[in-house]
Amino acid sequence: MAQLRQLRAGDLRDALALSISANWNQTEEDWARLLRLTPERCFCVEEDGRAVASAMAIAYGKSLAWIGMVLTLPEYRGRGFASQLMRQCLDSLTVPTVKLDATDLGRPVYERLGFVEEYVVERWRGTLPEGPKRSYPIDWDLDRHAFGADRSELLKELGPARPGRVASFVGPVVCQTQDEARERILGAGVSGLTLWDIPENNSQATALARELGFQPFRKLWRMRKGAPIAERPDWVYALAGFEFG
């Protein structure tokens, strides 16, 4: 019988199998990071002795929360697990606004729960050249205004880039000029095949991605439930990832 419960450290192998089944880029360490950041809001459905579906929510201060990692193994789809997990995530939150990045498969589920589309976010793929890793101070106030909420605890965990299961990932990168963004991305300390998520409405970021030889290959829809928040997507040159915003 299916049981909805909190995701635990002992479920990390099952969690990784979930993201692999969707051909996502997360590593086991990415899942462990989620558990460190928001252990009380990581949920799964257990059946047949393993986690077969998942969802997580992370609160950014008192104004905004993010839902991500909404996954179900293919052989368990069509049984309402995603909707159950989404409701559990929403019930665990007390903030006025909740956001997520929706795939084609998930979008109808979220619309039925009251989410509306804000704008498109794109995943770009390319190759970054080798170069020295540089350290840049985080402008906490700038990031809060660009993103629309305080995500300082997340930024302390992430850094500007991280390894992935099939490719490196660059982001988050928040700055006010294309020149500064170029410097930070080339100094993020990753090389080779790299993924880069960009708000489609940031034309300076998409132009920079093309300049560096990247091409878009996937689109998701940024969706919101609740009140709109003030943000500056034109300062967001690289997202933190679909699971974080």
TrEMBL record:
<feature type="domain" description="N-acetyltransferase">
    <location>
        <begin position="2"/>
        <end position="143"/>
    </location>
</feature>
<protein>
    <submittedName>
        <fullName>GNAT family N-acetyltransferase</fullName>
    </submittedName>
</protein>
<dbReference type="Pfam" id="PF18014">
    <property type="entry name" value="Acetyltransf_18"/>
</dbReference>
<dbReference type="InterPro" id="IPR052729">
    <property type="entry name" value="Acyl/Acetyltrans_Enzymes"/>
</dbReference>
<dbReference type="InterPro" id="IPR041496">
    <property type="entry name" value="YitH/HolE_GNAT"/>
</dbReference>
<dbReference type="InterPro" id="IPR000182">
    <property type="entry name" value="GNAT_dom"/>
</dbReference>
<dbReference type="InterPro" id="IPR016181">
    <property type="entry name" value="Acyl_CoA_acyltransferase"/>
</dbReference>
<keyword id="KW-0808">Transferase</keyword>
<dbReference type="Pfam" id="PF00583">
    <property type="entry name" value="Acetyltransf_1"/>
</dbReference>
<dbReference type="GO" id="GO:0016747">
    <property type="term" value="F:acyltransferase activity, transferring groups other than amino-acyl groups"/>
</dbReference>
